[in-house]
Amino acid sequence: MAINRIRIAKDKADLVKALVDDSGGKGPFQTYADVMAFAASYGAKCKKRVPLNVIAKEPAPISLEIFISRGYDSLIKLLAIADTNDPKILSAYEAETEAKRVTIFEEYANAGLENLREELRGTVDYTERIVLMLSLEKLPNSCGDEEFDLSRFL
Q: Rounded to an integer, what distance in angstroms lies between the CA atom of residue 107 and that of residue 80?
């Protein structure tokens, strides 16, 4: 059985490289696998999948073994079962199901990278912006449609 690889869309390759902290860079992630896992989670949060058209040569497709060694295999399986509602997608004995899980993960990651690109547009420090995004996600929606009442400070 061939080992599947997680591919990156060519139009998102520069963003993925910029998000990795290599050679003294300021990226918030240590590896390409970390970037793809975060992007897939973000794509799933947005309930959006985007198929890959042209595949990037650099960064090269990432071996599924790297994702397994970093503990992301659970994320890949969770996204697949949540997307298909079919427990058979988790079968370890069928090559087609593994390929389908990889495709689902890639498409969520591609959508997440698309959304991240919009969120990070014009940002100098990607780490700071991503931390801000996560902080805003964690806080309850206290900035609803209500107006801010200054009278309580009088």
A: 11
Is the backbone peptide bond immediately before 140 cis, with ω within 30 degrees of 0? Answer: no
Please check the confidence at residue 113 and state whether its pLDDT lies above 80: yes
Q: Residue 46 and residue 74: Cα distance in Å, rounded?
A: 19
Closest CA to 38 of 5, 65, 69, 67: 67
Rounded distance between C-alpha atoms, residue 127 and residue 3, angstroms: 32
Report the amino acid identity of residue 2.
A
Residue 59: cis peptide before it, omega within 30 degrees of 0: yes
pLDDT at position 1 is 46
Q: How many CA atoms lie within 13 A of 149 on its CB side?
A: 4
Residues present in the chain in total: 154
- Per-residue pLDDT of 60-74, as tens digits, reads 999 999 999 999 999
In a 3-state reduction of DSSP, which class is residue 77? Answer: helix
Domain locations in the chain as residue ranges: 5-126
